[in-house]
Amino acid sequence: MYHRVWPGQSDNLTITPEKLRQQWSYLKDEGYATLSLGQYLDIANGKTRHYPKRSLLITFDDGYLNNLTYAYPLLKEMEWKATFFIIANTIDGTAPSEEPGINEKMTLQDLRKLDNNIVQLALHGYHHEHFDQLGLDDIKTVLRTSAAIMDESGLHHHDVLAYPYGARPKDRRALADLKLWMQEKGIQAAFRIGNQVSKIPAPDIYEIKRIDITGTDSLEEFKIKLKKGKLKPF
């Protein structure tokens, strides 16, 4: 799981283009293969049982313009795939305007520049809500609105969610009800953070865990996370 890519800045959400290339070059040299979102879901659901042993899904959250500027050309160069989880109000034009720079998001026109064989688009809320701070009806409204905006945009996308902030309802019954509702409405899967290597097939398709890669990770720390999910697993 990545967020921003920006020259000269390394923090919890931002990695430099040079460090991103270093990490991906290591993966390439080690024989890793990237998966499209559809390929990953078939594996996670147990529909596909034969796939490269060293397979991974690369994801970027929030739809930053710098993903198009820096990550997308590297994906094309390496002939790799990735999934971008998009905040829907950046598509319908209602998102607050931002100054050009590190936090600028892709517009609908920017998203149309992406080859969907390289980048798959999916859902990340309407305006990046905290789902653990909303009632169940409000969450459903957010998801309905987000999916409708993606549908109306004409963008090729998957009805798959990455929980904004990785947050889900704290009440177990509400979370169970949300998962049942998502299943009924055709939302195929949902990703959280978790910082663990995902089990295959997925024990819960609405609780898929991702490994948070930060700009402060050294290459050696990246290698540890790749195997164990986090730097201090015990």
Keywords:
7 helices, single chain, 10 strands, 15% strand, alpha/beta, two-stranded parallel sheet, six-stranded parallel sheet, 234 residues, TIM Barrel
Describe what this molecule looks like in 3D.
The chain is an alpha/beta fold and 234 residues long. It has a single domain (4-228), classed as TIM Barrel, CATH 3.20.20.370. The protein contains seven helices and ten strands. The strands form three sheets. A six-stranded parallel sheet has the order 5-6-7-8-9-10, sandwiched between helices. Strands 1-2 form a two-stranded parallel ribbon. α1 (17-29) packs parallel to α3. The mean pLDDT is 96.
Spatial extent as radius of gyration: 17 Å
How many DSSP-defined strands?
10
Element-level helix/strand string: EEHEHEEHEHEHEHEEH
CATH topology description: TIM Barrel
* Quaternary form: single chain
Largest sheet: 6 strands, parallel
In brief:
By secondary structure, the protein is α/β, with parallel strands linked by helices. It has seven helices and ten strands.
Annotate the secondary structure layout:
Layout: E1 4-5, E2 14-15, H1 17-29, E3 33-34, H2 37-44, E4 55-56, E5 59-61, H3 65-78, E6 82-86, H4 108-111, E7 119-123, H5 136-153, E8 157-162, H6 172-184, E9 189-194, E10 208-210, H7 219-228
Parallel strand pairs: 1-2, 3-4, 5-6, 6-7, 7-8, 8-9, 9-10
Helix pairs in contact: 1-3
